[in-house]
Design a protein that fits this description.
Layout: E1 4-8, E2 11-14, H1 28-37, H2 40-49, E3 60-65, E4 68-74, E5 79-84, H3 92-104, E6 108-113, H4 114-119, H5 121-136
Parallel strand pairs: 5-6
Antiparallel strand pairs: 1-2, 3-4, 4-5
């Protein structure tokens, strides 16, 4: 039986929770540093979603999964939200390995461009709503 999480407009959104994931405690201080550093696009996005402002969905910021730190994580949907900016330039092999690891755990990955967060935030948030409805919605 599906467990209800929230509604986006008239569509119920259901949980897809994988439970506990691998966690490297040695990355804890690095994750904390990344949260404090505040990349502009991540801060802009965070202001839209923190404290369950986005359809009562709880987002975690700079979450450790295995040996990686993801930008945002929705635990109850097992969804990673990544904002791709200049930090991803020239790291194609690393990013591919990281993405393969996350997908092999059963996690979904939703990518957003850094520039779009900064310059087209309303549409970015609508597209995220559409993605959640398509992937996690239904009866």
């Amino acid at each position: 039986m599906k467990k209800y999480l929230t509604h986006i407009y008239d569509t119920p959104i259901y949980e897809y929770n994988l439970g506990l994931l691998p966690y490297n405690p040695h990355l804890k201080s690095r994750a904390r540093s990344l949260r404090k550093a505040g990349v502009l696009s991540e801060v802009i996005f965070w202001k839209q979603v923190h404290q369950k402002k986005f359809h009562q969905i709880d987002f975690d910021r700079q979450q450790i999964i295995g040996n990686y730190i993801v930008d945002f994580y929705i635990r109850r949907l097992s969804l990673v939200v990544e904002i791709d900016g200049t930090s991803h330039n020239h790291k194609e092999k690393y990013d591919a390995k990281r993405e393969e690891f996350l997908k092999n755990l059963g996690l979904g990955i939703y990518r957003i461009s850094d520039l779009r967060v900064k310059h087209d935030l309303d549409n970015v948030m609508r597209e995220l709503e559409g993605f959640l409805i398509e992937k996690y919605g239904g009866s």
